[in-house]
Every structure is written in structure tokens, then in C-alpha cells.
Amino acid sequence: MTIFQFPNDFKWGTATAAYQIEGAAREGGRGPSIWDTFSHTPGRVFNGDNGDVACDSYHRYEEDVELMKELGINTYRFSISWSRIIPDGDGEINQEGLDYYHRFVDKLLEAGIEPFCTLYHWDLPQALQDVGGWENRRSIDAFVKFSEVMYREFNGKIRYWLTFNEPWCIAFLSNVIGVHAPGKQDLQAGLDVAHNLLVAHGKSVSKFREIGVDGKIGIAPNVAWAVPYSKNEADQGAADRNIQVFSDWFLDPIYKGSYPQSLYSWFEQSGHVPPIHEGDMEAIAQPIDHIGINYYAMSVNRFNPDGGYLQMEEVDMGLVKTDIGWPVESRGLYEVIHYLQKYGNIDIYITENGACINDDIVNGKVNDVRRISYLQQHIAQVHRVIQDGINLKGYMAWSLMDNFEWAEGYRMRFGLVHVDYRSLKRTPKESFYWYQNVVKNGWMETRK
Ligand SMILES: CCOCCOc1ccc(-c2cn(C[C@@H]3NC[C@@H](O)[C@H]3O)nn2)cc1
Prior knowledge:
binds the ligand CCOCCOc1ccc(-c2cn(C[C@@H]3NC[C@@H](O)[C@H]3O)nn2)cc1; alpha/beta; single chain; 8-stranded parallel beta barrel
């Protein structure tokens, strides 16, 4: 038997996001977001699923907090629906929206659970998209205004903040690959969005410092770890580009004040460059306190001239996969966190890690042993990283409960808690009780 002992002050949590769990899409003064539009556009989301109701957490948040108390976590990562706070993106403030999040955050604090708040988890107010969305620099000032409202309103209640969740998804998955909202397939649009969200991030961090918020702030890139299929240069280049587009493209501007040269040149060779205005790179490079890392899987990459904007393809090496088709390989978590040490021994939180395992309820239980195995492997890697002296401060399992998995709709389940989408009944899975034990003990044991 092996025991993996974690620091006493380690943050154990779970994570969710507003559009994926709240529902109440047209209640409480909320305005439409790009995900309301996208999910109601035929063909964009599996089965025509949408977030109109989701897990109904807008009305059931007290029940959700009770589940968190039962789970024993000390941290809960959630996101703010921008269009609940400012329905048209940069106009009037909706007090009902602020009131909702005060009720929710107060419940967390009463339960002794640290709120860990993501300001932007993909749900841009539609009114801003109508005038170009993140391609339009107007969204920069709109985001800074939204973030200022939140900083001033929740200073003293929320101490841990993230500006953006998964900037690669916001920029490239949504505007170059096109499977997420707004569903564009235009490389220049992706570079414009990536740049403008970075400027918005930096200006929001400056506002956070100017206000003197009692807390810490950062950003949460989803990261890729990739190894080349062969030793030939073309395959190595493909793997490097894949890694860099998720992490370096965003963290180099923040930590170094410039884009990574090799990937910048890669895009430039096809005539695409970020729309850098005077002062932008200085605005982006505001010091931050932590980064959140979202890790799910690693990949084996090889060069393919027809392989999209990176001329890269992932090679199926026959590994065990989760039910969304991602290979289970926890080694990548260890490798990528070491890779990120080039930015210094920064405070890192694993703000998302989990498995899509679509087991259903049988005789009142969900025996999701594959999710337990996935979590065990990845939490062991977290322990290795800490043993190496890296400042890994916390782990938030994705997700507390099954929820709206974007273009996959409700068919893909990542939760420790099962949700029946007809009755909205929550049922803790076996992985919930396994994780509860790890959190309670502060250590994890494996059989051998
Ligand atoms: C035809 C090519 O198709 C490419 C699809 O490419 C991807 C890549 C990555 C993802 C992805 C989904 N998640 C989980 C979420 N993280 C944030 C939280 O909201 C979770 O729901 N992480 N990455 C999806 C699709």
C-alpha cells in the first residue's frame, strides 16, 4: 500500500461554471449570452441541448452547498454569468444578479468553503457579440467594467479570483476550430480574440490592484502535454506547437511581455499576426498571483500538412479512453507542470481535472470505478509535483456534478454527483465518497 500525504493547507475542491449548471436563463434579469444563442442554433449542440435549465443551480444552490459540505471540500470554484450582472455587457448593472451571487457566496462562507471565482467562463453577453464580441476592442473595456463591479461588490467575501477560463478554448476552439460559441473558423479572428482577452485580463488585474482587493488573482489556461510520434523534426515541431498554443501563447505575454517567437512566426508565415496596439503588451504583463491549470489528457502528435491551423494530428496509441474519447495518461499532468516552471515557481492550482464517465444509476448507486481510477492516478501525479518542491496549492475536481458539457450537451457526464435532468435529483456517485475520504484524511492510499 502507498500513502500520498498532502500538506495541511492544501485546497481540496470541485469546480463548475455558470452556464453549465445555473439554468434560469431568462430569470432574475439575466440577459442572453453567446452560449444561449449557440445552444439554440440547430446543429451546434448534441441533441439540441441547451442551458435553459441545466442543473437549476440558480434555484438549488443551497442543496448544492449542502452536497459540498457533505463532500468536505474547503474550496469551490464557480463562475459568474456576466449577463446576469450587466445584461447587455457594458450598460446598466442588474442588482438581482448581484443579489443572487451574494446569497450564494454567503452560503459558501457560512459552510466554511472558500469561494474561488472565475469571472469569464465563456458566456459573453450576446449584445457584445452583436458588435464583434472579443474581436472588437470594446469588449476589453466592457470586461474591465464588469470585473470592477465584481471586485468592488465582493471585496472581503471572495479572495481567490481568475479572470479567464481556458483562453485557448475562448480564442481557438471557438473561433478557429469552431466547435464552441460563437463557432467561427477564422485564424485571424482567433488571434484577435486571444490578444484582446489578454489585454482585458491585464487591464482587469490593474483594476484589481488599484481597488486594493483583499485577495489574489490569476488566469486559468487549459494546458496540453504532447509528445512527438517520432524523432523527426516535423513531428517534434507539431508537438511543440500544440503545447505552446495552449500555454505559451497566453503565459508568455503575461510573464514575459511578448508572444512566443516560434509560434508567432508560424502564424505570421500565413499572414496572421496579433493586432498589437501601442501599450498592449505592457498592459497584459501585469504581475499575477497564481495560475489555474486545467488538465484532462495528453496526446501523441505528428506533422500533417492537412492537420488544421497547427498542421498537427493526434495519433491514437491505443490507451484506455474516457467516454468522451480522451486517453487516460496522468503523466502529462506531471510533465506540463514542470514545463510551466520556466515562468518561475508560481503558485499553481489544478482548477480542473476529471473524467467523462457516463455510468448511470443502477440500484440507486453509480459505481463509477473508472472515474475513481482516473482521479487516483492524477492525484498521485499532483503529489509527485508537490514532492518536487513545486508550489501546487490545490486541486479542484471537474466537476461537482454532471452538467451541460458545451457542444456535447448532457450526454457527457463529468460529475462526482449524478444529475437526473428530468427530476434534477442529485445522487452522489461512488467517486464522491472516494474523494470525500481523500479530502477528509488529507491523504490518499493506493493498494500497492
Ligand atoms: C473536431 C475537433 O474538435 C475538437 C474538440 O476540441 C475540444 C478540446 C477541448 C475541449 C474541452 C472540454 N473541456 C472540459 C471543460 N473545461 C472547462 C469546463 O467548462 C469543462 O466543461 N476541456 N477541454 C472540448 C473540445
